[in-house]
Hints:
2 copies of one chain form a homodimer. By secondary structure, chain A is α+β, with helices and mostly antiparallel strands. Chain A contains 8 helices and 9 strands. Chain A has helices at residues 48-59, 134-147, 151-161, 173-182, 187-192, 212-226, 243-254, 260-270, and strands at 6-18, 21-29, 32-34, 37-39, 66-73, 93-102, 114-118, 273-279, 289-293. In chain A, strands 1, 2, 3, 4, 5, 6 and 7 form a 7-stranded mixed sheet that branches. Chain A has a two-stranded antiparallel ribbon with strand order 8-9. In chain A, strand 1 and strand 2 form a beta hairpin. The longest helix of chain A is centred in the C-terminal third of the chain and has 15 residues, at 212-226. Chain A is globular and about 65 Å long. Chain A binds a DNA duplex through residues 242-244, 259-262, 264-266, 269, 282-289, 306, 308-309, 311.
Amino acid sequence: MSEHRLVIGLNAVLAALEGPSPRVLCVERSVGWALPFGAFDPGAHRTFEIGLRQFVELQADVPLGYVEQLYTFGDMGREAPRAVMRDTEPSDRVVSVGYLGLAPECVPPAIDRAQWVDWYTYFPWEDWRDGAPSILTDDILPKLDVWADTEDRRARLRASFALEGVPWEEERVLDRYELLYEAGLVPEEARDRGETSRATDESLGRPMLSDHRRILATAIGRLRGKLRYRPILFQMMPEHFTLTDLQLAVEAILGFRLHKQNFRRSLESAGLVEKTDIVAASTGGRPAALYRASALALEKHSPGMTLPRMRQ
Amino acid sequence: MSEHRLVIGLNAVLAALEGPSPRVLCVERSVGWALPFGAFDPGAHRTFEIGLRQFVELQADVPLGYVEQLYTFGDMGREAPRAVMRDTEPSDRVVSVGYLGLAPECVPPAIDRAQWVDWYTYFPWEDWRDGAPSILTDDILPKLDVWADTEDRRARLRASFALEGVPWEEERVLDRYELLYEAGLVPEEARDRGETSRATDESLGRPMLSDHRRILATAIGRLRGKLRYRPILFQMMPEHFTLTDLQLAVEAILGFRLHKQNFRRSLESAGLVEKTDIVAASTGGRPAALYRASALALEKHSPGMTLPRMRQ
DNA sequence: ACCCCATATACTCTCTGTGAGCATAAGTGC
DNA sequence: GCACTTATGCTCACAGAGAGTATATGGGGT
């Protein structure tokens, strides 16, 4: 065993919805934007989750509801810079355990450096609700086309960015980010190579500290994928909601529009929602009935919902 | 930060098939059966996977093909006993990163303490290929029925062990093991409480060192679940195989029988297999055509196969 | 009071994938 | 040649998903 000390960094992707905007809790640090994170303390924390909840409360003071572990990142060279972690030494090796947490609303963080940020600020190419994003078609794809000069690269590009008839797979957020990283299109890549250019280039989404954008990509991909087979969405909804609210929430997370009638049918036939007597305050047209999550929808292992994509 | 030193244990569930027997690579240590594992060395290992491959080679000398991370277990009280880990001190805190690895065949391990073991040795209640296992109906369920004396416990029991009309969900291997652990039916529970009774009770499956049976349960559940949406199975098959071989392989992993015709139809319509000119040496009836995995089936993100369960 | 507009909600039609059974082909052993 | 075994092909029924059209129910303007 070498002399390098191990440090486990706990990272929380805390997600919530603000109307049609999917948000993630971010903390502004001296060196840039980051997820709430801190070192796991083996003496004080009996489990990872206990440590995580403590950090989130300390750094953002937002209640943490549903929590699930995402992945443990241990690659050298992409770990957290020590500068921002207290009580670590240059020789320490930092590995990151990423967590996904869901909250039913964006409660304003009590700490002023913490803030709810629309996650498409970090991944503008992931939002297809108004059609293919122009940053993708005009900016990213031409550059990736130049980068993909081998058959292997072309195949990966085709598969992850839905070229040549391949359908867009919304859950492959990490694949796409990693491809942009490898192609040197995101500022984190140059930074990890040791370049000190402080050009905060946000043209391809806002960069984050350390490997936090990678963790965020993992979280969004996991959340998008999980909607299909677990009723996890109701962890992000208020107690009462209209079916349109629910659809807008799903669309916000997935980044594309759904077929309204089929979405509703699948919800009701799956028994995930129950109508209440209450009727929503009108929003210009016929008032909508308010629904709530059924008992089934709140169970951990219930099936999710079908997500009928709207076609052109 | 306290004085406790952190140690990351890397654990490999290496799975392969021997005909209709799903096996996992196990190592016999002085204190019992274990998965290949060892401490991650932050000085020597650039990534977790590098460390993992090194341990597996050292302890079993079996080539490691497909590998994926499972979960990181950090709970106090269920970590690895220090006794078996070199260079650790009593105050050290050990967390386990579990990995799943797949091999196309059970190559005999070069180390004599390593061995391929049928995984139903550890989870006899998971094998429904010949109907409901008697150890479940005669032994486990009566005991669990006594244990489930609250509404909450009853609900969990119903859901994970398919009581009262709930269908058996093959991927919930961990849920079932954890329930048996909580109910005090597996020897690991008493051991973790500090009881020193060395009664190696194997009536409810063979126990393992530390939390290794939990990691194994996670791995089997992940593998079972992933079959449906990724063509991962072909990582465990030889280059050429008959469709019956393939079906037996799936049945071995899932632990239940499939509907032959529908399974074949789904395979061919999904384009996962290609017929070759070769015909298998006859096994008593009409000789079967040999197939191989298609290019599609070898891609990482291709869809999996439908698993049409055989009904009575 | 009436009409127009916007949104919510209901109904229908079609197509495909899946569950299930039956029929036929091609070997082996006696 | 016959019985048996395993492989392979075909068909029917049905449920669910995709997609479009029609009807209810509110608000606001004239």
